[in-house]
Specification:
Helix content is 35%, strand content 17%. It is an alpha+beta fold. It starts with 9 loop residues before the first strand and ends with a helix.
Length: 234
Amino acid sequence: MLAPDPRNPLIVQSDHSILVEVDNPRYGEARDRLVRFAELVKSPEHIHTYRLTPLSIWNACAAGVSAAAIIEALGGLAKYPVPEHVLVSVRDFAGRYGRLQMTRDARGLVLSTNDLPLAEEIARQKAVAPFLRERFDPCRFLVDPADRGRLKQALIRIGFPAEDLAGYTAGEDFPIDLRSLTRAGRPFALRRYQDEAARTFHASGTERGGSGVIVLPCGGGKTIVGMGCMSHKH
């Protein structure tokens, strides 16, 4: 991890909050890196506040951001040394992601782990057990598709998020093409970020289909991106 520098824009606090100086020359870089693994809490004029949470770290891991990359970003942008227990928390949160996986085989949806003690723990959790149908292997459980979302939420609450690799059941085809011209006769096409969002949604491969959630700000063109997702499928 890089040494702190008083000229940097971040102050990482012991409560896992992060203060960012908006007027700092490296603010843009800090904002673009923080958004990948921290939640924006408030953004007044001069100091923005972010927070590291288990969910923000797990979302980062799901997007391919490692604990090492998060720690490197914090250290490289911090004015003062990052509290050691914050770094420990980052490693701990990131280490929990991927220990449980949800996949699909001939039996249906399967929740699995390579860690027998973890399998025992989730089987005994009152918040999780009602969503596990059959334990056909010491480390694998059948899951009712209707309980998929509720099980994932329950696992998040106990601190062990499931990496969902099961994809979705293919529905009826709905061929669609985007206009090349608007009704006013002007050229029409997806903007670069819209096209990237649609392609990323399908990046998991045709065997799984689109999988995930696309998040864009108001006015970002979510409807158009949704159309683009269907268009890329065909």
